[in-house]
Amino acid sequence: xxxxxxxxxxxxxxxxxxxxxxxxxxxxxxxxxxxxxxxxxxxxxxxxxxxxxxxxxxxxxxxxxxxxxxxxxxxxxxxxxxxxxxxxxxxxxxxxxxxxxxxxxxxxxxxxxxxxxxxxxxxxxxxxxxxxxxxxxxxxxxxxxxxxxxxxxxxxxxxxxxxxxxxxxxxxxxxxxxxxxxxxxxxxxxxxxxxxxxxxxxxxxxxxxxxxxxxxxxxxxxxxxxxxxxxxxxxxxxxxxxxxxxxxxxxxxxxxxxxxxxxxxxxxxxxxxxxxxxxxxxxxxxxxxxxxxxxxxxxxxxxxxxxxxxxxxxxxxxxxxxxxxxxxxxxxxxxxxxxxxxxxxxxxxxxxxxxxxxxxxxxxxxxxxxxxxxxxxxxxxxxxxxxxxxxxxxxxxxxxxxxxxxxxxxxxxxxxxxxxxxxxxxxxxxxxxxxxxxxxxxxxxxxxxxxxxxxxxxxxxxxxxxxx
Length: 468
Known about the structure:
- By secondary structure, the chain is of the alpha/beta class.
- It is built from 13 helices and 16 strands.
- Strands 1, 2, 3, 4, 5, 14, 15 and 16 form an eight-stranded mixed β-sheet that branches. An eight-stranded mixed β-sheet has the order 6-7-8-9-10-11-12-13.
- A hairpin with a 5-residue loop joins strand 1 and strand 2 (about 50-60).
- The protein is globular and about 65 Å long.
- The chain starts with a helix and ends with a helix.
- The model has no long low-confidence stretch (mean pLDDT about 90).
């Protein structure tokens, strides 16, 4: 082996090691029988409604809506007078990082030791035994994003989970889902650090600190880009048979930049590999953040909470930014004071709008359908004519888009994951309940069936202890 070839191999090994995925998903969809749901009212999550129609699931995927070939051994579920939707998705949850019971020992959502903690990952705080996961499953939630809290300007990475029982968070991680970067603007970070006589203590301090962090991330990214370019040049030289001694010497002295976990996350957001989720309430601040994203060349994927998003619905649609919003939370702090109950309906305009109903609540995640129903009602009262087939997107396909998993789930289109909820009636009724919940075509919950009403190990342990 020539010196050049050896140098290229060494540098390529280092580059691959740096790029290797850390803490990969260990989730594997189990096998299950084919399922045929018949005579249902189906909302497909893509904007269509089908009445008295069948849905066929096989090999963990949606196969067809309407008619098609079936396996003679398929399990047939009579869904007459029932409704079927995609599994619900919550893009803003703190289950597992603020689990029940809510005690100090479980408070793992905010690493409030510095305004910039982009290096932390929410998944490393997730407690899989949180009883909230099974409560959310009973509400029809099949996937969710777990985020750090909003004490920090950069709170760290979020993780998208399948809502399945597991001993580890790796066993819940949604395969191929990109990481999210949680950021926060407004009152939260300036209050947390201002109360400690730290910076930032003002909104202008918030923005200055964001920009300083992005500048550091740009330099870090440029350093790695130069290193990878040198590796690529060496590979090209080796392939073309160049005399490698001098090139090898130069390459071996071109050591890779020192890894920095904080800047690694920020650089991932600059590249678009990590999706930016921004806690922000006021319209003026959201516009400032959009300007800052343009300055540094990254994209804001979703504004969370956004009680004033209705004021800039046109700009959000123009920039293809989703709004993950509450149906009616209002007035609990000054920046939440100008919220209106038509917010979600106004953001979800036909020309590119992307409205999402999120929970930010261990209780609200259990009734995302009812939260969406409230927003639909307010929109209809305002004359916007929002039918169920449109509103269901707020808790299915739009949520999947926000998390970068829209090609895998969120709608009942052929080839997508068979994440499905069978409801006893119209899911936007206050009386609606999930009867069955399927994840990858396997029934994970059934109302009234103790074998499919999972309890966490924590709950079982408490019950066993009480019985002794």
